[in-house]
Amino acid sequence: MKIVVIGKSGQVASELNNLSNNKREIICLGRNEINIADKNAIDKVLTHLKPDAVINAAAYTAVDLAEKEPEQANQINGYSVGNLAQVCHSLSLHLVHLSTDFVFDGNSSTPYLTTDQHAPINTYGASKAIGEKLLLELAPETSCIIRTAWVYSTYGNNFVKTMLNLMESKPELEIISDQIGTPTYAKTLAKAALYAAKNQLTGIYHWTDQGVASWYDFAVAIQELAFDKNLISKNIAIKAFTTADYPTPVKRPSFSVLDKSQNSNTFPSELIVHWRQQLNSMLNDLKNREN
Question: Which residue, 207, 152, 161, 147, is CA-closest to 185?
């Protein structure tokens, strides 16, 4: 089976690229190889490559910058998804699209259901909601949406790698404690997306690792596990603070827990793992890469 991944340098695309020893099976395309803002360009590339399915892992993810660049965010996260949906539908290709918890407002006290209505509170979330709506309108029977949150990996810039650097360079850290969600290891998210593509799943799915944490909880676990693996040389004080203590220009959901109850009946059980175990696996992978 041949699968085209839209995206090349991102965390999930990098993990997808590693999932096959046969580079003709999973083909990752960067912005220089496919212009998703141009339907004709998409059609030309996909017609030439003749994949069985497409995974869209491309996204504008700069949450703060999106407020200053709404047109760019809307194009990449929104209208380009519509372009992909139209072309994939016309070519009879299954499309898996990665989305985000940011399509919700974060005001819930229970995990968000796949059927909950969009209620974004910033430009980034609104742009991702546009993409979801277009996909569901244009290719509902030949596509699926996988919403995720708090993604990290050994690739790119992310919370885990930032924390490791700061834990080496700072005497103490203050980490927000009242934003709640679930970390997601990109390697397992990539496997879930690949499974959805190969099995042509349709509809909306939520995918994060298991369990619930605050950013503070996540940081404490990172330090504990990383120190045990000699990835950092010291333990520092980690203090909790609230969103009200340090308000930011762009609002973020305070509650990002996604309901994943349907996954146990859909995805392989070995992919459904607690976030702390996944963090341990990622740090092992990071250590192996450094060695």
Answer: 152
